[in-house]
Fold ATPase.
Amino acid sequence: MTLEYKMKRIKSGIPGFDDLIQGGFPENTTVLVAGGTGTGKTTFGLQFIYKGAEEYGEPGVFVTLEERAKDIRREVKSFGWDFKALENKGLIAIIDGVSSAVGLPSEEKFALEEKFNIDNFLRYIYRVVKSINAKRLVIDSIPSLAFRLEDERQIREVLLKLNTILLEMGVTTILTTEAPDPQAGKISRYGIEEYISRGLVLLDLQERNIELKRYLLIRKMRETKHSMRKYPFEITNTGIVVYPSGEIY
């Protein structure tokens, strides 16, 4: 008798999305969420962290390299998400990577050092992940991390090292990055992000009837059967909602 292998799935917390990936992300995988400005990459990552903690009791770490932590907390309140309450319970940790980049002291509990060093960066994330027993991790974003490095060769080395460390952490990870021109096949800024990730989700804005509409494409998801169709999604007053049947548009 052949035993059927069942992959443990981590629910995204995004209505409609898990229907497209057999119930959730494969556990302990790294997924790249790529898209242009305004497509919802950061919201996707924040929803993954918040819903994981609030609905599934899975602690998560959000590394912000673009926005201040206090701005993130204020913005997500529009979705009804109380990050601070879950931080106080030890279910969410936000790592401030912005203050050090601009040379300001951080008021946050978790913050990167002023002098950036990739090895220290990875070690610090590892310590925070272990301190709250995190099951989920988001790093927002790869271009903001790369801006701190000197050349493209170094960026590639760092991304390869990052991928190895993430697998060792035993967390399900979302990395966000800019997609310069998905229509022309240019999915990521440095041309390596999509290769180190085991999953790739593309977010896009397209004009329909003189209006911009949001679409999502699962380009790659290892150990998962998924469609290669584009699906519409919206950023509603409760967060991202994906429409698998496409009925909204």
User: Anything to note?
Assistant: Helices lie at 41-56, 69-76, 83-88, 118-131, 142-146, 152-169, 193-196. The longest helix spans residues 152-169. The first strand starts at residue 9 and ends at 10. The CA atoms of residues 1 and 102 lie 61 Å apart.
